[in-house]
Amino acid sequence: MRVIEKKISAMISEGLNGKAFDRKITKRDRVVSNGEGQVSVFLWGTEIASFDAQANEIVVKSGGYRTVTTKSRMNAMLWDWAQGNPSISQRKWVWYVWTICPLTKDLKSKEFQGVARFPLKVWR
Fold it and tell me: What are the structural domain ranges in the chain?
């Protein structure tokens, strides 16, 4: 995980714990929290993830930009915050979401349609 992604994750933790802020981390990365457990992560002004502590949900979005940076940011957030550690990969220009079936423990993939929702892990 990149240093910037660790900083973003730390900001998400603060936001989920009720701190309100609107912080620009780099010229392209911004994290916004309303102080009520809702956090949004932006890359170049496009929301790529939203967290809701009350709904216990993380939503990742490509915003129409299928770049290495977008995928890296989304995967870092999924690794830190989504139950079952889902991930997004690419093969022949097509993005896929990989998850583990809770019953069979089999690894399953489906094409990423631009938005994916997952339950949050218990956060710190």
Answer: 3-119
d(CA 105, CA 120): 19
Q: What is the 3-state secondary structure (H, E, C) of 16-28?
A: HCCCEEEEECCCC
Tell me the two tokens of residue 56: 């216990």
Interval 48-67 mean pLDDT:
94
**Residues ≥6 apart with Cβ < 8 Å to 54:** 36, 37, 38
* DSSP helix, strand, coil percent of the chain (3-state; round to 5): 25, 45, 35
* Predicted pLDDT of residue 1: 66
Instruction: Give, in order, the Cα–Cα distances in Å from 47 to each of 7, 38, 62, 63, 88.
Output: 17, 13, 8, 7, 17
Whether this model's pTM surpasses 0.70: yes
Residue 103 confidence (pLDDT) above 80? no
